[in-house]
Amino acid sequence: AGSQCLSWTGLNCFFCSLPAATAAVYKQWIPNTNFETASNWDKGRVPCARDVVHFEKDKVISVFVGSPHALTDMYLPLNGEFLLASGAAFTAFDGSWDPGCDSGGTARFADAEHRSWFDPTLWQDVLPSGELRPGGPIFSVHEERVPCHHDDVIFQPETSFRVNTDSSQPVIHLRSISVMGQELNTPSSWAGYLGGPSAPLQFHGNGSLQVTGTGCPDKSGCACGNALDGPRICAALLRAPGRQCPEPACQSPLQPLGHCCGVCGATINLEFTPDFDLLKYQDKLIQELLSQPKYAGVQMAMSKVHRAQTFLGVVSRGAAPLIQIVLIDDRAGAQAGTAAEQLAADIMQDIAQHGEALGISSGKMEVATGSTASGQVGNHPASGITAGTVMGLLLSLLFLGGILFLYRKGKLR
Fold first, then answer.
1. pLDDT tens for each residue of 328-350
2. Which domains does the chain have, with CATH numbers?
3. Which of 13, 122, 324, 336 has the greatest count of CB atoms below 10 A from its CB?
4. Which stretch is the leader sequence (predicted)?
5. pLDDT of 222-246, one tens digit each?
6. Residues 6 or more apart from 139 whose CB is under 8 A from it?
């Protein structure tokens, strides 16, 4: 609030005013293009009075300026803007002594073009106030560390940014977007912002952001919606040095849906009924199991996913919604994943006893730990054989019977 916007296209400058169901999830963009952020400059410091400031001629940029600056000279790009906070300004250096700036030089602004919307390391979970969400036993698979279709996105107040929205899907749906402290939570308010001068400088790429204003309407949860961009998310995660997946201690690690790295531990896939409530069930597991001292180092991710299904392992039957639970722990070596495995067994036992009342029709467990080669699998329906299994067997018998009938009639050779 109270900011001004100094924009230019070519040599033209002008001033403009800047507009200030299930549990909502808030994700905040981390990097910025602020003038006072030292890491945005090649010298690792904010330019001082004797410096000559260079913005690349052909780089589109939006830069927030929070305080007054005296500079020797400044080269601007052909298309960009300064967002000036109250009291912020640029003045020409008058040659007087400037402490800490005895020798001037050239300060170049860093390239922000390649900061990708689908880089999970550039987002953080926050509270509605923008404060970091306290840590705990819950984590997210990589696809869900990027904003999902029903999430609220926050760009910090008094910050500028530039984000590449290249995507494998034409539209990226979101519940709301907050920019400069203003929450845009309706399609019309977002369309109005897109029509202003700043949006084209802040967002670029082939993916179009669309604000819906609606959260997840289903108490069993909603799939994140980033599956099509899963390869893009993993490429961004692993591109930089030091971000490679850690070498798992188990020989055949598990590969949870939506996660870029193999893990030692356990996964549980739940089939559910309309009575299932994702948040209530997650709270139940935290309070009754994860809070136990023996599971102090275990972390859990839980969300709705869509797993591809096939008929007889060949013909695609589409994707079925499941609740995926991923369990990992902080143990090393041969003990890696063993606490997660024990917790998974406790969850499966609880499902066998109370699954029907919780809206869980069946659960399938898979385990990979440092102490086992791989793949201990358990399947525990909550109440007998599932209807899907029965139908699959009947269809298989009908299919084989039809082939035999046609063969005996001479219709099939």
1. 999 999 999 999 999 999 999 99
2. 34-108 (no CATH), 116-227 (no CATH), 245-367 (3.30.70)
3. 336
4. 1-24
5. 999 999 999 999 999 998 666 778 8
6. 299, 300, 301, 328
